[in-house]
Amino acid sequence: MAYLDHAATTPMLPEAAEELTARLSITGNASSLHASGRRARRTVEESRESLAEALGARPSEVVFTSGGTEADNLAVKGLYWARRAADPARTRVLASPVEHHAVLDAVHWLGEHEGATVEYLPVDSHGRVHADALRDAIARDPGSVALATVMWANNEIGTVMPVRELADAAAEFDVPLHADAVQAFGQVPVGFAASGLAALTVSGHKIGGPYGIGALLLGREYTPVPVLHGGGQERHVRSGTLDVPAVASFAVAGRLAAGRREWFAREVGALRDQLVEAVRTAVPDAILGGDPAPGGRLPANAHFSFPGCEGDSLLLLLDAQGIECSTGSACTAGVAQPSHVLLATGTDPDLARGTLRFSLGHTSTPEDVEALAKAIGPAVERARAAGLS
Amino acid sequence: MTETPQRPLRVLAAMSGGVDSAVAAARAVEAGHDVTGVHLALSANPQSFRTGARGCCTIEDSRDARRAADVIGIPFYVWDLADRFREDVVEDFVAEYEAGRTPNPCLRCNEKIKFAALLDKALALGFDAVCTGHYAQVITREDGSRELHRASDTAKDQSYVLGVLDERQLAHALFPLGDTVTTKDEIRAEAERRGLAVAKKPDSHDICFIADGDTQGFLADRLGRAEGDIVDESGAVVGSHEGAYGFTIGQRKGLRIGTPAPDGKPRYVLDISPVNNTVTVGPAAALDVTALTAVRPRWCGTAPAGPGTYTAQLRAHGGESEVRAELAGGTLEVSFTEPVRGVAPGQAIVLYDGTRVVGSATIATTVRAEAPVA
Are residues A235 and A139 in the same domain? Predict the structure, then answer.
């Protein structure tokens, strides 16, 4: 089997799995005052410190959540509500059109139900938001902006955004900028303090940690209105008993992901380059999505459009041969829609239906790439015969 | 004659989310085939949940199908054929009603979607056959040609809605439910035994793309309301309607006629004229049809060379009537041994030779025993 879908989820690191399983049988609510509680609390705080260090942040800036989706929702909705409460004129939300649905749908919901005016920032043909675009959008009426949100790196086509420049542009107007860094963490340098961001989302299972755990890194001056109300854990912005084993395991994975980042970029990046070359050799008219410059995209991401093919057909044919990848587009009831990311980059809708995302990870091998190299040519030929229905 | 050959095939199983197609897929696996499940997303608005889940187009159905595929242990995908379905089935359905006819969208779907759009894609992707949960039999003769037959269990037989399949389509069709005598209860028990959660799911009866079962409302939304007269055979106005498309030949209920018939007997829809938006009603005896013509013939094998005697089925779950049929210049001319009632243009006439489906055609005109009506 060739698993080429690490961007969906990547195998747990053995160290993280060990940490998780070892702690599952230890009792203790991190909010309890007795010894068991204190022990749990200590694990949580040490994990918080560890993760903060891995992400260039202060421990108090780490807010644990149930994952990337919750962190994105807390940032987008919570900051919108808080900023609007402080000044009712602040109802504009600026977002890139290539965001993950966890941001995109949250922003859309604010527009539908909370009186937000959502403005999508222009992107270039690689799906990149330029600082001037954000600056211009804010400058049109700075006092009306609640927040801006631009992902660190795109989950489909792998394009890396100029986060520091975007944060600087936002800072000129004191507008908080959030970035979903779920795909970026472990692949490109992600430093919270250095980024100038107000908030940043990371997720456990994308870096070799467990499912169901993530974090919002949140500048100390920001107090988003909670999405979840309850016991007041996590700076009162995210109530709920902490999942101590998951928190600890996530921290182990985070520390390893940050520590091995350069190795990852070099080794996995080289494998990715081989994969791109192999696909191009087998299918000369395949179109690489995103930024072709190695520095402009995630080292583990390869995204292709195959003219005249349905991504669904390709997926089925590769799946039948044990090659696992993704069409890279969101599903509605399992029905593939042309990717909003590709449409935002100006890709023809028919071409946008014939895409595959191959994403590598820490367990990828040259054999995975070879299996794809062998299979992709005949699969494309066959999918072309089946055509676009 | 032999059963379907057991050479292992690469099979694409169309899984609606119902119990029949789930058991069919499971049986195909058991027969040794390499099976992949696919759910067809046919609704333009797949987001809509609806209660009861009797149709085939909801998220719930898609999930039920996926769950069944998981239990059977086969790959599963959802294919979006909503555009093709809308063009080939839904728009045709509306246009047929607008023209005063009564279409059968299930036949249309089998002809244009399941055994055309889906089958073509399946074949191109390297599959050998499409499998469905229809109750019908495909029998391979010694010369390799294939025949479509009624299901062993004639009470469950669905060969009528498959009467549009030609020889090529039949060559790639697999109906694992058709060759055994099976009641619905037995199929449900089998699903239960196989651990399929759809075992207890209610049957689908309605037209899948009309969620609430309100065909009249569906048509009114698309065609608008158009008031017109209900007249008797003499042309006298006896009532009014809100759109001639809302009626079916032979319909008795819902006519809301104020003036009673001279003989005091119930009246039935005899004719629908979309041109002048008039519905004609009359006594049951006036519904008797002695002959009809039908267009767009489709043959499940070789077309008959000359006139022949067959049994005919005129609607889903309808009985059989003895006919003589002859093809004349692309039109099927049919005469009935005994007059039949409730023959609606737009419906299919399916011809049988014993249990074998000979072919089908779409009813265009009928000849009445009393007075011919277009």
Answer: yes
Angle at B209 between CA B206 and CA B213, to 5 degrees: 40
Question: How many CB pairs below 8 Å do chains A and B form together?
Answer: 53
Give the domain range for residue A70.
14-259
Q: What are phi and psi of B332, to 5 degrees?
A: -90, 125
Number of domains in chain A: 2
Tell which residue, A268, A293, A346, has the closest CA to residue A97. Answer: A346
Is the CB of residue B62 less than 8 Å away from at least one CB of chain A?
yes
- Contact (Cβ atoms closer than 8 angstroms) between residue B149 and residue B356: yes
Residue at a domain's end among A259, A278, A303? A259
Predicted model pTM: 0.88
Please indicate if any CB of chain A lies within 8 Å of the CB of B249: no
CA distance A321 to A372: 9
Pair A156, A205 in one domain:
yes
- Is the domain of A160 the same as that of A254? yes
Q: What is the CA radius of gyration of chain A?
A: 21
CA dihedral B133, B46, B87, B24 (to 10 degrees): -10
- Which residues lie below 8 Å from residue A211, measured CB to CB, with a gap of 6+? A9, A67, A204, A205
Helix segments in B157-229, DSSP class H: 167-171, 184-193, 215-223
B185/B336 Cα distance (integer angstroms)? 36
Which amino acid is present at A203?
Answer: S
**Per-residue DSSP letter, B54:** -
Beta bridge partners of B253: none
Residue B205, judged by CB atoms within 10 A of its CB (0-12, 13-18, 19+), counts as: exposed
Domain termination site, one of A197, A230, A259: A259
- The distance of A317 to chain B (nearest Cα, Å) reads 7
Q: How far apart are CA A205 and CA A128, in angstroms?
A: 25
Phi then psi for residue B299, to 5 deg, are -110, 130
Is B41's CB within 8 Å of A333's CB? yes
**Judgement on whether residues A249 and A183 belong to the same structural domain of the protein:** yes
A230 with A281, same domain: the answer is no
Interface of A with B (CB under 8 A): 312-313, 315-317, 319-320, 331-336, 382-383, 385-387, 389
Mark whether A243 and A364 lie in a shared domain: no
Is B57 among the residues known to form the active site?
no
Cβ(B81)–Cβ(B118) below 8 Å: yes
Answer whether A149's CB lies under 8 Å from A179's CB. Answer: yes
Per-residue pLDDT in tens (0 to 9) along chain A, 389 residues:
999 999 999 999 999 999 999 999 999 999 999 999 999 999 999 999 999 999 999 999 999 999 999 999 999 999 999 999 999 999 999 999 999 999 999 999 999 999 999 999 999 999 999 999 999 999 999 999 999 999 999 999 999 999 999 999 999 999 999 999 999 999 999 999 999 999 999 999 999 999 999 999 999 999 999 999 999 999 999 999 999 999 999 999 999 999 999 999 999 999 999 999 999 999 999 999 999 998 899 999 999 999 999 999 999 999 999 999 999 765 554 566 788 999 999 999 889 989 999 999 999 999 999 999 999 999 999 999 998 66
Alpha-carbon torsion A107, A109, A112, A113, what sign?
negative
Q: Which two tokens stand for residue A164?
A: 């520091």
Containing B332, the helix (H) or strand (E) segment is: strand B331-340
Same domain membership, residue A48 and residue A190: yes
Q: How is residue A9 written in tokens?
A: 């989820």
Per DSSP, B149 falls in state E
CATH number of the domain enclosing A216: 3.40.640.10
Structural contact between residues B202 and B17, judged by C-beta atoms closer than 8 angstroms: no
The CB density around residue A368, as the number of other CB atoms within 10 Å, is 21
| Token code pair at residue A234 | 């996590």
B146 backbone dihedrals φ, ψ, rounded to 5°: -120, 145
Residue A298: CB atoms within 10 A of its CB come to 30
